[in-house]
Structures are given as C-alpha cells and as structure tokens.
Amino acid sequence: MKFIDEASISVTAGDGGRGCVSFRREKFIPKGGPDGGDGGKGGDVIIHTTSRRRTLYQFRYKKIFKAKNGGYGQGRQKTGKNGEDLTIEVPPGTLIKNSDTGEIIKDCVTNGETFIIAKGGLGGRGNRRFKTSTNRSPRYAQPGLPADSLNLKLDLKLLADVGIIGFPNAGKSTLISRISSARPKVADYPFTTLTPNLGVVSTEWGEPFVVADTPGLIKGAHEGTGLGIKFLRHIERNRILLHLIDCTTIDPADPLNSFDAINQELAGFSQKLAQKYQIVVLNKMDMPDSKESAEAFKAAMENRPIYEISAITGNGIDLLLKDLTKIINKPESKDD
Description:
Strand content: 15-25%
Helix content: 10-25%
Strand order of the largest sheet: 10-11-9-12-13-14
Order of helices and strands: EEEEEEEEEHEEHEHHEHEH
CATH superfamily of the largest domain: P-loop containing nucleotide triphosphate hydrolases
Distance between the termini: 28 Å
Number of domains: 2
CATH architecture of the largest domain: 3-Layer(aba) Sandwich
CATH topology of the largest domain: Rossmann fold
Number of strands: 14
Number of helices: 6
Radius of gyration: 29 Å
C-alpha cells in the first residue's frame, strides 16, 4: 500500500429536516388544530482516531463526505427522523486544518478519541409550534437549518517514541527489522526506504515502545532535496532520536562530517527538531577497520556516550535497547 501522509477533503453535515404543516382531520373532529411535527436534526460528521488506520490512503480517491439530512416532520405531531451521523476514521498523528483559513481545528493524537468536525443542522419547527391565541391555525412551518460545511487539510505525522535518523544506507531498515517485528525493504542502494516504517520493540527492561524508521536524509533535505521535507516533519513527533551512523563512511580526518550534516538539516527544518534528545549509534562494527573509525569518531565527540553495534550480527543491540528503554521511561526525556 502506498503511504499517503497528506489529503484534502470536503465534509458536510446533514441539513435539518423541514417542519410539517398539518391539521388534525378525523371523523367527528372536522376542524382540529395544527399538528405538524418538527423536522429531524441533520447528522454530524465525526472524526474518530483509530490505530486501525496507518495512513491517509482512504482519502486518495474519496474526497467528499456528507452526513444524512434530517427527515421531514409529519402530521399527528410526528418528529422527523434524525439524520445518521457520518464517522471518518483517521490514524493517530493526524493534524486537521481548515484549508480555507489555515486554522488548526484538531490534533488527533490519542487512539479512540472522537471529535465532531461538522455539526448537523437543527430540524425546523412544525406548524403546531406557532399556534397562538390570535393565530389558531398557522399555515407555515420552519425549514431545517443548514449544516456546517468545511474544506479540510489532513496532515499525518507519525507518532513514535524513537525516530531512527541517518544518511541513506546507514542500516536503519536492518536495525528496525532486528529489534522489532517490522520487515522493511533492505538493500544496498540509497532510498531503499521510501515510506516510514513503524515497529514495536518489546524488551525485558520495561514497557514496549514504538520506533520509526524514516527515509535517509541527504544534504539539502530541509529545502526539499531528495525525500526532504516530506519525511523531516514525521521526525517532529518522535520523542527521542536514534542517530545511526555507518562507521565505514567515517573519514578519520573529519570524523563528524556526516553527524554534523544531519544535524544541520534538522536545524534547518526547525530548532525544536534540532534540540530533540539524540542517542548516537555507530553501526556496521563487524566491518574491517571499523574500530579505527569508531575510535576517531568517539575522540571527536569527547565525553558523549556512543553505542557500537552491528545490526547484521546483533552485537551491541542488547545494551542499546536496555539503555534506550531506560531513557524513554524517564519523564524528562519526553519531548512531544
């Protein structure tokens, strides 16, 4: 399934039903009074956040949504049937904006929450409502009130505890497949990951947590180069970042080149993103000369903790996950 993280839709609630003009006419009661019922209320359009949805793919072809109108009032004081509500499901992490004004209407974060995005119109009052001492036979009723109608922009940002970032081919997909049940595509060419992957990591040291394997960044990403802004914004919702570096690409003469380049892209996109807590991990430690490269990198980073792993062999993974679990469970590490 293609990953869809933006969509534009139109939603319209149901109009209220028209009130009824009717008079009681029965045998032996030839001139009964007004008995027109009220119209029914129009259906609401409801947004429901559910983890059953992972993307906005459902909106790729269906873009117009309308709830049912309220039924007309009837004689004998019968109220019209209320229009059926229309529920639209979105995945957690969906930001809903009014596309005409740019106003943020709702940030759908919690699984299971509901929100009325467009309210149905009230039903019109039947003619029995207008009977007075001076007008005992009113021959008019109210039309139903019109419903809310909105043009919406849906913007999905993945929710995850840990976002794995790094240049293409750093081993992000291999790592997420090693530590979770996610099975992303793995290959030795740039941009193997064309869509974000989510995986649930279960450890013996604490509650399970969610990791997001986002596509590789390149220089100029914050300006739209490569996959650029399309995926940088997903990282905004990650609580902490796991900065994965391919140790085989480290230049001993300039060991922090790739590390600094990624952080420049984060800062170019937003300062909030640049200030997120990062865990730095050197991958591919099973490769020749990896120790020399790793030592040069750690020396340049001075006293900052650096993890050394091999996503292929699994070496160093347990220590990384143990410490990662502890960091995630600390309240001060939250940056939602």
